[in-house]
Amino acid sequence: MAESIKHFINFAANPKVLFPCLLILTLFMFPGNDKLLAINKRLGLYKLWTKKGGIFLFSFMLLFFIFGLTDPNFRLIVTKPDNVPIVALLFLVNFFLWLSMKQAWENDARIAKGQPPQEAEDAKEKILVWPDLVYIEFIALILCSALLLAWACALPAPLEEPANPSVSPNPSKAPWYFLGLQEMLVYFDPWLAGVVFPTIIMLGFMCIPFLDNNKKGCGYYTFNERKMAISIFMFLWLVLWIFLMTTGTFLRGPNWNFFGPFEYWDIHKLEALTNINLSEYIYMILLKQPVPENILLREIWGFLALGLYFGLTPILLALTFLKNVFKQLGVLRYSIFTFLLLCALSLPIKMFLRWAFNIKYIVAIPEFFFNI
Amino acid sequence: MPYFDSGESLFEKFCKTQVGRAIFRTGIPRNQRQRMMIMLNGVFLHLHPVRLPKHAVKVKYTWCMGGLSFFVFLVLTVTGILLMFYYRPTVEYAYGDIIDLKEQVPLGLMREIHRWGAHLMVVTVWLHMFRVFMTGSYKPPREFNWVIGVILLVLTMLMSFTGYLLPWDQLAIWAITVGSNMAGATPLVGASGPGASLLAIGDVNFITSSSDARFAMLGGRFVGEGALLRFYVLHCIGLPFVMMIFMIVHFWRVRKDGGISGPT
Prior knowledge:
heterodimer; A: 66% helix; 2% strand; B: 2 domains; 3 strands
């Protein structure tokens, strides 16, 4: 019984299975428009954001964790000292996600009844910072210090063998907060995954307040008034940020191969690499002719695909699904918004192309290290 | 007053002497006026306003994450200073000094607190960002403070990244090797990045593995003596200095943009 559960989890934890599932789940858990919201309500998914739902969520996570700890392979990877903060992070992110969504749905119910949000009710009363805030801060500091001290006493800081440039460990991993980027390296070259995308992520996050010109929902928890913003943020934050980081930390073993949480990290595990580039796919498989010598001719299809993706999709979306968004944002905001969104979506798309068609690069010009 | 008994304590008597009055302007805040004055008189407490709407002090609204990030930053500063007494950033001594910290230094808990505190700070900063997003607090007039916050988040991760190298063990140099290899792939200015070969005159390449972005970051062609010193200086002086400036702006803007966000 336990073995078959472990087998199932190992299978389900594979990014090929888990990532699409999470994408779909996020779409319905945080519905971005009225249609999806109606489905969410019909399925009763919003009930997770209640006290009962919270208890369910945490008992589920805790049970999974306790069950996992009975397995030696799971224990080995989860209790590695530097991985402990990520286990804690997973619980914390879920807790605060639940806490914020619970308050958001409660406020939405109040607003639907014509009442102000709970925060506005509280804000009517004014308090003196001394002692009412200073004492809360003091208690928070004491608790935080106690936690840090206990953590420091319980777990020695990791220290491995002295540095040796000639012996590289397998796998070599970046610090845990960068493992989302390292995970991206599976699908994109370093110049994109390590330089261009981090820059776009940073700039994109800075753009958020200037792109989101919805005036509602400032200073209180709400979901209904900011459906789309929260939906997109959850895709970026939970799926692309937290999930990829977790995958990179717990599920990537030697040679950056995938290993289920209950799988032994076998250094000899082989995964067939039969990836081909888009140009080869088009010329050799579809057109059944040799790949042309000329670089530009060879890669024209890839450039065309990219041009259409970044040039045409925003226009098509503005005419169809995002008609109202386009109206609300205006041309400049809308162009930046769709560019950033398409950049973020390029990762799931590249994953899908890899898994379904073994596509390695859309544009491949290794002569100039220019591979997309 | 439910908080205090009415008898004068020793501290209160001291507050009434000339020395006491010179140090503690307000004394123990017992009445409304003193409670306001204590917030205005001290340099540290005046980061806060005197009064607040009640929602702003509720833990379920703020999660305390911003304040805790700052507190953990202070803990890291103090433990970091203590660690600097024992640590020499050279390939020859670094690893041994870390061993000594564990085995020779009495109460050698500082490295533990520093390392776990660093992880904790990354977590609290992320959660702070999460809370600010979920309450829509980045909306006008607080847009710019969100931008400062993103910069502080990146600086926090860079602080953690530069500190990761200092123990000079296998974990450290290979994590930094993985991280810094990406710098070598920077378009135009990285030796293994796209377009590097465009910056050449005739056969002379300007961007090589000893003149590119990665080299600037590591102070060498691989993670060695130069990288250790660079990361040490950045970790202990450079980045904290930049971070302090952004933190000052961040806190100032919280107050100037109308205090903590709330329903209007």
